[in-house]
Amino acid sequence: MIRRLLVILFATFVATQSRADDWPSLPEQNGTVEIPAQEWPLRPGSRRVRVLVHFPGGKLVNVNERTGLMLTLHNWGGTDCVGTASPTVLAEKFNVVGLCVNYLQSGPKDSIEGPEPYDFGYLQALDALRALWWLDHGLKGKGVKFANGRVFATGGSGGGNVTLMCHKLAPRTFACVIDLCGMKKLSDDIAFNLPGGSDLNARFSRDPASPSFLTLDHQELRFLGNPDHLAAAKSLGSQTKIITVHGRDDTACPFPDAVEMVDGMRRAKLDVESQFIGKDRIDGKIFTSTGHALGNRTEIVLQLGAKFLSPSESDRRERTEPSDFERRETIRYRTSNGAFEIDYAAGFPEGRFVASEPLPEYPNHQDLSFVLDGEGTKRNVKTPTDWAKRREHLVRHFQRVTGPRPSPLRRVPLDVKVLEEVKVGTLTRQKLSFQSDPTDRVTAYLFLPVGQASSLPTKTEAGWKPAPRPAVLCLQQTTNVGKDEPAGVRGDPNLKYALELAERGFVTLAPDYPSFGEHAYDFDPKHGYVSGTMKAVWDNIRAVDLLESLPEVAATRIGCIGHSLGGHNAIFTAVFEPRLKAVVSSCGFCSMQKDDVPSWTGQRYMPLIASEFKNDPKRLPFDFHELIAALAPRPFFASAATKDNDFDVSGVKDVIDAARPIYELHGKADDLVGHYPEAGHSFPEDSRRLAYDFLARTLK
């Protein structure tokens, strides 16, 4: 390990030294320099970026131990310091060195009139971060004392987009960033000039043969509300104060995209403050518009940011941990087909896309004791890290059968509508619908226990905010009555687990499976799903979004339960959805080697099992042994009836036995529970009681 570290340090030193001549010295007073930039694949060759430097008082000598660093970034089509807060004002008001950066495609010739698609933040942010590193590195090289924890950024419109992307690519570098009406999402209408929420045209192509082709991975990276990436930024340790200022009537950079991003940041527990400007904020001086212009962008930053940016304020923000420049680590953001890596080994960032490794074929999917590398070489699974690699392979193999999990770009506002509200004993039951994807709505029952009043738009008491409770997503079996059965409205009274769990104090949500109940669905591939299974998984993920949005719900304590179809649907969903913290499956699975494989091939399930894998269990690229182990270390309870004619109980025991070593590897052997009632294909009362106790214990 020490030798490897020395090799990395030496390589970094050589890389930095070899490029030292390319980096200019700091000017002694306000001035302009050009720094080396990462190559733009659409115009191969070396590239340089102009940087405008603004010192407090106009001179380097005025930098002191309380002086910070601040990017202020121009708009789409602009250059220098256009459309953003004045760097000279920022330098004087906040004691910072202000940097304006002519990042990639600055000016109308390249950004608006050029043939290449607009970068939409990625290389542009790398340019800005390089300028910031150059300033930081240059001051340290000269021995100038400055406050390297006081690092800030702001920008307007396109500059707001680049500001937010700077935080994304360097999440541990900034103390505060202020986005002024920036673009939050490279939506299809913006990317491909389609009718929609914006008249911006980024000039991308959907043709894979075109040099302007927009890959899904690049589009996902440029989605600043991407929930997976926001969670990754938080896990990396972002402490940045994020302020986003956006006009409620902005159609150039659509306001709904700002709402979506802020909601995602809040769910990820990032420190975000939204300033959504309506007509009540118009004063004719600072704010002059609820649209894209906003007003005086310098004054907006002074008004909204002073308490965080001024070194004399009690609420001032200052980073105390090392920056990404100092850490010299690699940041990774996973996308559908690989990951973007931002490598700080040389101090300044180098960005690259790394495609997913070739997927090794496993000789069987019942032996979980090993993992294969890209060349097919076996390595014993000895640590959770070893298992994580095998799990990654399993998830990719499973998607060969279900089709890919939809990209986060497929999320749309939930637009929850309450259709009915009734009292059921001491409970409140609402029938509601929510938007799952751009073309489909899902109907569901929501139960709120005694003392809870809904936060959704109903006639219930306004402003009531009860203490949050654990919640359970309750999934139906194969029945035409759909959600009515788990809700106890119709169907088998032994399967009313949404009602019974609510009576025990849980918030519960029971959605219709596609094509059942009130959820009309035709499974046409034009909707974007390869299988009914993946459509149901996505609907359930959106149902978790809904639960997580409710103040009545403790967002970190959401579980899932289901019988039969709902039993395996719960497993499938939890494999893709880490927010489900505990899972109960009743009569929902057994080893595919002991099951009726053709029964899985209908349009509601996984038709590729027949068309691609010929209904041969030995050819299937997954088995439930892996799927259950993939839930570890999250608690899992299986109720497997001994006389079940659908799922062979011996096949269930095979699965549990195979998954147990993985739970033991995580120190959670007691959280993998197999229960085997003497019954047919059912969920008996005693089994339900044990399952409910399990959820109460594991969701606390």
Describe the structure.
With 700 residues, this protein is α/β, with parallel strands linked by helices. It has three domains: 2-324, Alpha/Beta hydrolase fold, catalytic domain (Rossmann fold); 331-402, no CATH class; 413-698, 3-Layer(aba) Sandwich (Rossmann fold). Helix content is 30%, strand content 21%. β14 and β15 (427-437) form a beta hairpin. It starts with a helix and ends with a helix. 48% of the residues are buried. Mean pLDDT is 94; it is low at 1-18 and 457-464.
Write the SSE topology.
Blueprint lengths: L1 H17 L12 E7 L9 E8 L13 E6 L13 H8 L1 E7 L5 H4 L10 H20 L9 E6 L1 H12 L6 E5 L7 H5 L23 H6 L5 H10 L4 E7 L7 H13 L3 E7 L19 H13 L14 H4 L2 E6 L2 E9 L1 E8 L14 E3 L5 E3 L3 H19 L14 E8 L2 E11 L2 E9 L20 E7 L21 H7 L3 E5 L20 H18 L3 E11 L1 H12 L3 E7 L21 H4 L12 H6 L6 E4 L9 H17 L6 E4 L9 H14 L2
Parallel strand pairs: 3-4, 3-5, 5-6, 6-7, 7-8, 17-18, 17-19, 19-20, 20-21, 21-22
Antiparallel strand pairs: 1-2, 2-4, 9-10, 10-11, 12-13, 14-15, 15-16, 16-18
Considering the chains and any ligands shown, give keywords for the structure.
700 residues, alpha/beta, Rossmann fold, 9-stranded mixed β-sheet, 8-stranded mixed β-sheet, 19 helices, 30% helix, 21% strand, elongated, disordered N terminus
